[in-house]
Amino acid sequence: xxxxxxxxxxxxxxxxxxxxxxxxxxxxxxxxxxxxxxxxxxxxxxxxxxxxxxxxxxxxxxxxxxxxxxxxxxxxxxxxxxxxxxxxxxxxxxxxxxxxxxxxxxxxxxxxxxxxxxxxxxxxxxxxxxxxxxxxxxxxxxxxxxxxxxxxxxxxxxxxxxxxxxxxxxxxxxxxxxxxxxxxxxxxxxxxxxxxxxxxxxxxxxxxxxxxxxxxxxxxxxxxxxxxxxxxxxxxxxxxxxxxxxxxxxxxxxxxxxxxxxxxxxxxxxxxxxxxxxxxxxxxxxxxxxxxxxxxxxxxxxxxxxxxxxxxxxxxxxxxxxxxxxxxxxxxxxxxxxxxxxxxxxxxxxxxxxxxxxxxxxxxxxxxxxxxxxxxxxxxxxxxxxxxxxxxxxxxxxxxxxxxx
Length: 405
Description:
By secondary structure, the protein is an alpha/beta fold. It has 17 helices and twelve strands.
């Protein structure tokens, strides 16, 4: 199986091998793999390919071969699976996303709020040629998107290219595992009651007893707020429930996550060059908890529910058919995905999801083409974290004037 990872020169990529060593369902289900890491910087790519290949050399089971390429179109030829992990603008751009909203009284984040929108404005046009290359060179491949903000990126990509793309995220997987451990039930049972959109999703308990037993598992969210919601939200819901607390925390720390990751990347790349041991981890859980389980289920079939992001259709009632939603699926046979019925959200999460979906619909339509300032303002004003016209104007003009490309 040829797996091509676009943006594969990221310093977190060698952690992919941890997931390969613990292949879902057992090593016997893992096919021989040719993993092609695609990056733009030959020097950085060589370091990451070398480290990933070194770690893969000792893996049990079927052969795993790791190579690198800077020619994207050539690398995509014959791909069975394409993973898009490109970060347009790198961590410098992420720093911008996480900082500029603070001047308008809004916490910064690369997927939520104005920061996520700035990321989309920069990312969607830059990826248009990527989707075109995939459609040309690997039209039958399973295409998995990791690039944020995933919902807007994929909805816009489908408008631009006609590809059918799924997104995967480790956040729902981690939350469901934590809830299953607390309740002492199989994780697949928990996944059947998760639904929402990327980073805006909830697990719906069966009764008040399950809710009370799991209130504290909603990371960064006040238990009283979680009780009022009646469901356990993704960690990112704290940006909607507690924006005041989030911005206070950011201002107190004085440093955003992107700046921390820049230092970590420098450390890791230096360690790869020196073939060092005991290096710090990026914590790239998206490979072991999301990407590889999907590849396994796609390849072998699986009745184990997975949380997959894809075009809504009529999956979650009340939302546009075109927005990207996340809910459980199974694979009754290889390459055949079947939706499971979506749970019913309580009133407060349902209202929050509807508002977020309306924003993403406007945002994906705006950024998929040559967005005008008025279209950007319309989408920004619909963002649930933006509470005034003056904020929207300042935020959009800052993105236009200062956003890195």
